[in-house]
Amino acid sequence: MPRDNKSSLIQKIASHAYATFTNCCSSAIGENKVFLDNQAALTALLTQIRAADLKIAPPKKGSKSTHNPPVTYMHICETDTFSMGVFLLKRGASIPLHDHPGMNGMLKVLYGKVKIMCFDKSDKPPDPAAENETLFDPPLSPFQKDALSLSVPRSTGEFTQHSDPCVLTPVKNNIHQIDAVDGPAAFLDILAPPYDPDGGRDCHYYKVLQTVGKNVDKECDQSRVEETWLLEIPQPDEFWCGGEPYPGPPVSV
Ligand SMILES: [Fe+2]
Q1: What's the CA-to-centroid distance between 201 and ligand 1, angstroms?
Q2: In this predicted structure, what is the pLDDT of residue 91?
Q3: What is the pLDDT of residue 67?
Q4: Which CATH number do you get for residue 184?
Q5: Domain residues for 19?
Q6: Peptide bond into 138 cis (omega under 30)
Q7: pTM summary value
Q8: How many Å lie between the centroid of ligand 1 and the Cα of residue 108?
Q9: How many domains, the chain?
Q10: Residue 248 domain flag
């Protein structure tokens, strides 16, 4: 029997993620047919994975965990090419709006339901209206203007174990928020390349700003109506991520 048939599904996913993302992480990635073919095959593998494949199960109803972190992470593997692990969200938990600079990502729900709200960074020049701090409600302090950026809402959707993976690229869906819906949830997460704060791939957190009135943009072109101002913020106090052991099949890459 070929060795590959003995591999667990998560091992196949890891091996395929390594092959897919090696030497393929650039902003021109959408033009690369080999990458797209590999990514489609990886998506097909991810679509099959279930919590039981990783020996993970939803927490029992009624279990109280008020002193634990709202989100925990099970590390599975990491190379220079990609990292893979499982995020577990408690009931009502959120991973706040954050980015993955220069990175690709694939997210597959294992149990529960999550709502994912995605934004793309806008490549348009800053709007002169932002020079006026009173555009925002509440008004910004002058030093906050340096932390402003424009983005475009890309998609909002709910995902369960039966959904296809949510895919992000360096330019598409790259900024996102993930909320547990109607109970605890868990998802498998692949990031390529991994976060690397020393290499310029650090995570940033954002807050959606409310502008004062819809008419503020009336002199701007129509495409700006959809744009949203984001303010970079420190990691929100209500969010922190603990760790817990990964109980599933061993993975080597
Ligand atoms: Fe993320």
Answers
A1: 13
A2: 95
A3: 64
A4: 2.60.120.10
A5: 3-243
A6: yes
A7: 0.87
A8: 12
A9: 1
A10: no
